[in-house]
Amino acid sequence: MLAHTMLPENTIETSSSSAAAKMQMLHQAQDESAAASSAAATATAAATAALEDSEPDVETVSIKQATPRKVQSLDLDSISMFPSLGSSSAAPRAAATTATWGARTKSTAGKLGAVGDQRRTPAAAAAAAAATAAPRVSGSGNIQERMQIPSIQVPGFGKSTVGDHVKAAMASSGARIESTTSQATGLTTFLISGKPEAVAKARLALRSSFAKKETIKYLVPSSARPHLLGSKGRTLNAIQTKTGVQINIPRRKEGETTFEPATLNEDDLDAEEEMVPIDIEGDVESIKAAKEEIESIISKACRITYRLTTVPATYYPFIAGARNVNIQAIQQETNTRINMPFHVSSQDDEDDEDAKDTAIVIQGDRKSIRKAIERIEDHYREIERTTRVMTINIPKRQHRFLVGTKGVHINEIHAATGCTIEIPPVDSTSDSIVVRGPEAELIPALTLIMEKANSSQVESVDVTVIHKPVAGKNKTEHARHVTKYLSARNKLRKIEQDHEGVQISVPRTEGQTAVTIEIVAKSRSEVEAARAKVQEAVKAMTPVLFDTVQVEPLLHRHIVGRKGQNINRLRETHGVEVIVPDSNSDSHEIILVFEAQEGVDASDVAKIRAALEAAKQEVDKLANDATDFSTKILSVPARLHRNVIGTKGSTLNAIMGLEPTTSVRLGLPRAGSADVTKKAGTPALTEDSIVIKGPKDEVERVAREILALVEETKHQQVMNSYTVTFDIPATASPHVIGKGGANINKLTEQFQVKFDLNDRAAGADDKTKKKTGNETMEVTIQGVKKNVETAKETIIKMVEQIADATVAKLNIPVAHHSALIGAKGHYVRRLEEKYGVRIQFPKAADLEDDEDQSKLNVVLVSGGKKGVQGAKEELLELLDYEKENNNTLELVVEPKMLPHIVGRSGAKINEIQESSQTRIDIRRSTDSDEKAEVRLVINGSKAGLKQAQKAIQEIIEAQKSQVEELVEINNKHHKILIGQGGSTLREIIAKAGGPSEMSAQAGLVKFQSNNNAVLLKGDKTIVEKIKAEMLAMVAEQDSWTTISIQIPASQHRQVIGPQFSHVKEIENRHNVRIQFPNNKNKKEGGKDAEVTSDNAANERVTIKGLRENCEKAKIDLEARIKSSASRSFSIPKRYRQAVFGDGVWKYRNEFNVVVVLPRGEGGRNNGANKRIDADEDQVTHGLTDGLSWELYDLSGPAEEGDEAQYTVQLQGTETACEAVEKRLQSLLEKARASTHVLKIRVPTTYHGLIIGSGGNNIKQIEAESGTSTKIARGEELITITGPKEGVEKAKLAILRVVNSSEKRA
């Protein structure tokens, strides 16, 4: 017998020879052994009969071909000899299949078997055929799988037809397949290599060609049928494509109803759901995979809800565990969802089931629900056995502290002790608390309970027992009215604010027999004080002060009035407070309360009742004024109610208006509402009912609009029913749909239509699709006809554009990809939007290790031909630009140089970047060593790189030449080296070649305040020059001498000169230092800081320097003294204000002349606006254009003493004194001509216009009129001085400015 090896021509590749040689040896050894044993024929016949139903198996191996040679009989199961084949460990597969969702059924297929070695038992042969190992994965992500099938199943067994099937499988999948057939084992082995998806596809193709097909019946729940099919059969097609089987799901019979999972009780949990058989055709492995997919869908789609009511709610907290840890564990274990109600009341179990549902709700499949129920009931039985119960009495008012916010205290007690507490309901009068838990933990739990209960002090006031019953009034109703009044008028809140930490609560529920106000606080004293005030407030509210009136809730807003004007009027007119129910309440009751009113005694019942009756009548009248109230019931199908309501109620709100006067309720009324009670003669409400209440006209309007909206909705539904169906190529469907449905969603939103896409070839097999070659996708559009047609045209255009699509490959170096893509893909997205194309840059992660790295340079541009061409050209242009301008240079610098390159706040590096048009990135080493080098990465054009590199190198070279030197200089010389305001030091630095800017000079020289040293830091050359200059100055100062000269204090200012100019000139000329005795005399001083005749003290002036220089400076100072002069100037005293009223400091600044006023007159400035003493006949009052004014005539004879002479002294040079005297004479003549003074009051808003920009307007008025004008700051007064004609002219000019401004306004 010969070993038969089948290899497709020019297709199957070999890697090496060792493994293939082993396989060839195996075949020859088996043949020789079979010829020697006659019993082998019988075993072969039996095995061949079993092979008819055997199943192909898969195992990962590495099959390699070599030259065959004869060997001795070998052990096929030897791992040491055949390590690549793996060991046979898989058990034979079960022959029968079982339906999970129904009664068990037998498979229509026969039992499966496998052919083994003739010298082994059938079981061993089957085990060998079923050997399976995990796929071997290579470093590139490729895998290898081995697949074996009985040779009897190969078409044309013994012939060369297997190669054709292998070629077809390789062509369709892209995987590499090697095959060999052994007559000894009766198996054909396939070695499949490639990507996982390619291997899987090839495996399906081989099974389809070689594996034996069978058909089984599989039962599924009837309710799962639509989920298995999916929309347009998509889910079913996906299962068939993935597993390679054919599935036939029968149609639903006429009259058959689909079982919908509902809420089940324990009685019907075990009820079997109707099962539907489906046919699955394929090989055994494919059928198994398909069944797994089906079961996965069924487990998600067929979940039911079960209500467990057999466990008492008392044990819920124990079953749930602290913070629900037990329930969460059960949910994870059983794959269910469990909702367990929160249990706190000891009477919950006694409540009516309809009133409160305490069932445990479980969601999941039936099997999981049964398991969850079993776990919960086990917990319950164990807890019931181990827990004990203890009952204690705690005052009802303290129960709230045991519960806490959202039951936090109950959870704390449970977590700490494992015990739970049960508290009576709010409406119960019981004080009993039930504690349930382990016996050993009951006492610790009781301790915690008492701590929580006593954490706050509680007192209560029973409002129902404070007042005696009154005929015709229920005391409970009166108590409820009192609490509502106290709450509405914030009287209880006022008590809370008056007492620290006090909280007052009133009952919220209706129908209670006792109405109790509770007061809670930490402090007992605060609780007692607050309780006393509450009692006092309640006692004051006697029944006689209250009354009620019944008004339809919809009319309450009319009773209140706009901004509460009606109830405010009732309060002011009758002293009655009106308490209206909350807008969300259905209550008809309005409470009237008489408050204290002036003139009405609190004990005068008649007047109180009269006031209440009057208020009641007015409320009735207000209600009657709105008596057009009506109710209308519309019948609108419930399915259209959501259209009436709109999104978040927007449509209904728009119909009712901004301030609705009607109420609209849709469907059946909720339980407990006023609409539940049916009145006689009114139609019964249904789910289609819409009830409208309000003023008659408004009700009619709302009804009309709702009906119109309903008709419009029906019309829209008819309009949107237009449907069109057309086909597009299946290859174009991904582009029409878009990524994640983006394109189709955009069209849906744009045209307000519905799309449905269906693959026409979805049900066809692969062979049919290959024959036709023109697969199409059916597109259905539904909506308004015009929109549908437009949407269709849009899709057709998209398909045409896809047909025009092309792909261009650009070779762009990967180094430039980031620049072309742009920040966050900005640039590439702009190109895609501009040209309507898609640009794909390669990713390194998508490239295999053994692939050519040059593929990373390939950029794909796909889209229309025109768009692709445009995008291609722009990308290449940008690439050329990047090659020219996107260059990189890296510089390595020392860390100590980095601060100098960056500069303060990055100023220096920003300057370099801006001037060179580059970008500089600083990259520090990850090494913690502070001396690690720093890299500067410069990006930009070549010229920019050179410029930036040069600037950085200059900074580095400059810093390398920096030195520090400490010079010993006695600190007595520091002041002289620094000079006045640092002037000497600045001159030294500038002279040494240092910077002239003060900011740049900072840090070059630092004087040590605590020793005789000066620190010099900077360029070596500059430091040396500064040092030499300083030492020379110090040496020179050591040889200096001091002389003095007497200069009258009155002449100091003339000698010093403006801004020290004269003294500095002498100091610089002779290199000396001149010190005047008083620094205040040396300074310019403030305004009006005059030198008087008494400033003659301290006239000694010192000169320091070399002896000969001091003598020369002394001579210059004496010359200055000789050149000064002094003369007197006298004027009549009556004109001193006009001449010297503005002060004399301006003469010192302008002429360097000191004006010495007579003693007692220095610095006085009575102001131009002082009171003018004139007789009444010399004053003229007037009103012009609304502006008042007074004209003073000063031309009369002088008063006694006014003609006395007022003499001042002028001190300065002869020329300067003469110039000042001429100025003073001019002012005196002008003062003599100023015979009149006009005071006019002008609003300050016009002062800016009168003054003008830079004072131009007022200067022009003064020049044209020959007057002087004073405008008081912040006041309306304007004073004009001059001759009568000039004053009048100036007044008219001011009036013109005011009038013209008013006209413009």
Automatic annotation (TrEMBL):
Stretches assigned to coiled coil: 605-632
The keyword Coiled coil is annotated on this UniProt entry: yes
Composition skew (Low complexity), residue ranges: 33-42
Single GO molecular function: RNA binding
Any Pfam family hit: KH_Vigilin
Gene3D superfamilies: K Homology domain, type 1
Keywords linked to the UniProt accession: Coiled coil, Repeat, RNA-binding
Keyword Zinc: no
UniProt region (Disordered), positions on chain: 1-42
Domain K Homology: 141-211, 212-299, 300-381, 386-454, 480-539, 543-627, 628-711, 720-800, 804-880, 885-957, 961-1035, 1039-1122, 1234-1299
Database matches in InterPro entries: KH_dom (IPR004087), KH_dom_type_1 (IPR004088), KH_dom_type_1_sf (IPR036612), KH_Vigilin_N (IPR057778), SCP160-like_KH (IPR054548)
Signal peptide: none
Protein's UniProt name: K Homology domain-containing protein
